[in-house]
Write a structure and sequence with these properties.
Helix content is about 45%, strand content about 5%. The chain is an all-alpha fold and about 160 residues long. It has a domain of about 70 residues. The chain has a two-stranded antiparallel ribbon with strand order 1-2. α4 packs across α6 and α5 runs antiparallel to α6. The longest helix is centred in the last third of the chain and has 23 residues. The radius of gyration is 35 Å and the shape is elongated. The model has no long low-confidence stretch (mean pLDDT about 80).
């Protein structure tokens, strides 16, 4: 501590003194400066409104030479094609899912969990288009039912 002050307090006092001497040397602060801001503000103003704030999405294009690239007009957006249902999502019966899983008496808990993960990678509802999620959900429920039943049998 210096003169009964902590180091932090002494640094604050020194900064305050430096700020006062800088203001005395400069005289009155310039009209275009914001009091307490070390630098001036630089932006384009048109009728009191910032130009950049009016074209937020186009600010990047200001720095591109679009005429030289031949891109003066914005291209028409291409509509997304209609999704096509994968063939495996049409098989939603218990027998079809069981045949796909190919669960046998020789399966161990490890192989059954591997089959569950592999089936989920291909059929999980989060991984398919929205119109096909009902079929994917049904297939996952059937696969989980079959694998859980096989795990119960292995556990006995």
């Amino acid at each position: 501590m210096l003169f009964g002050q902590s180091i932090f307090q002494s640094v604050l006092e020194r900064l305050k003194a430096e700020d006062e001497t800088a203001e005395d040397e400069a005289g009155s602060p310039a009209a275009h400066r914001v009091s307490g801001l070390g630098t001036g503000l630089a932006f384009d103003v048109m009728q009191g409104v910032s130009v950049a704030s009016q074209r937020v999405g186009e600010a990047y294009f200001d720095n591109l030479d679009l005429d030289a690239a031949g891109l003066t007009e914005k291209p028409e957006p291409v509509p997304d094609p209609e999704p096509v249902m994968p063939e495996h999502l049409t098989r939603t019966t218990l027998q079809e899912v069981a045949a796909e899983l190919a669960i046998s008496a020789a399966d161990t808990p490890l192989t059954l969990s591997e089959k569950r993960r592999a089936f989920a990678r291909a059929n999980h509802p989060d991984g398919v288009a929205l119109p096909f999620r009902d079929n994917a959900t049904k297939r996952m429920m059937l696969a989980n039912l079959l694998i859980d039943e096989a795990l119960r049998r292995v556990g006995r």
